[in-house]
Write the structure tokens for this entry.
Amino acid sequence: MTLLLPYAKRTSQALIFIAIWLLAQGLVSHAHLPVPASILGLACVLTLLFGRVLPTRYLEAGAELLLGDMVLFFIPPLLSVISLWPLLSSQGGRLALALVTGCLSVMICTAMVVERVFRYEQSRNQLKGANNE
Amino acid sequence: MSDSLVSFACLLATIASYHAAKQIHRACPRAWLSPILTAPLVLTLLALIAGISYPTYFRDTRWLVWLLGPATIAFALPIYRQRSLIKRYPLSLVAGVVCGVVMGVASSACLAHWLSLSPDVAHSMLARSVSTPFALAATVAFKGTSDLTVLFVMITGITGMLVGEFILACLGVRSSIARGVSLGASAHGVGTVKARQMGLEEGAVASLTMVFAGVALVLLSPMIARLLG
């Protein structure tokens, strides 16, 4: 039983997230809100955490379960390649080129920009720290 | 065997192959052995050999995809835990998110146009650089197909994971903030896994960037769609 306890805790805490997700979905569809349910739920939980209404220990294990194995949730859509193949095969090479180049351009561009902004921000933080002393 | 039984077997096979792939990757941690590559590959081969159609496969496994909703909400925890990082480097994070979202959409739109990809493919590509749950929400506004979008999101993430460390080293990017932001913005959840391997701060920054970029893209998607439309 003690062996099963961590699983029970993780699963029951994951159920909290599922309950919040269902509530958010209900709210979005009933009130015709323009935000996706996942973002509404995320905002709600963040508010509860920052407001110290909900201590992190009630959610930690559940979040670990859901985030730690998130890769599993990505797998089923990947198999859509079976039915999408006729559509994709004719432009497969160009498509791969577009996806790889796109990913690289985002990666290189953000890395260069953030590296510079970070250096500026770091020196500003140090200046602020020095002034406070 | 009836169709519903086949669907249920597919669900079990998916979970089993994921766990097997995870064990293999743990024993032999190579990038090309990541569960995100090996598990779908094995499952696709199995489905092709057994002659299982995608709708049959997806009937029960869609519950796994459904769990991406609660998983997105669970990102509240890492964000809350890294709140001091947000306080210390707000400008870097904002710059990374803005740059990531703009470059993600712009590069997709331009490349799809230059390479003359078909319209449904081009529309589904716009949301490709953010995490799946956000991409699925955003692609509705872009009139993309959810299957194609998820496929593109995953290929993007896997690309970023495989080449990320090499590219960042070539660029001489040394700060953990820039490395994390770059991986989170370009390769979302899969990149975050890579970033976490590079360092704790990289991982935290990558997950923050991924969530913020995802939220930003979803909220901006109706506007972007009108702009491009």
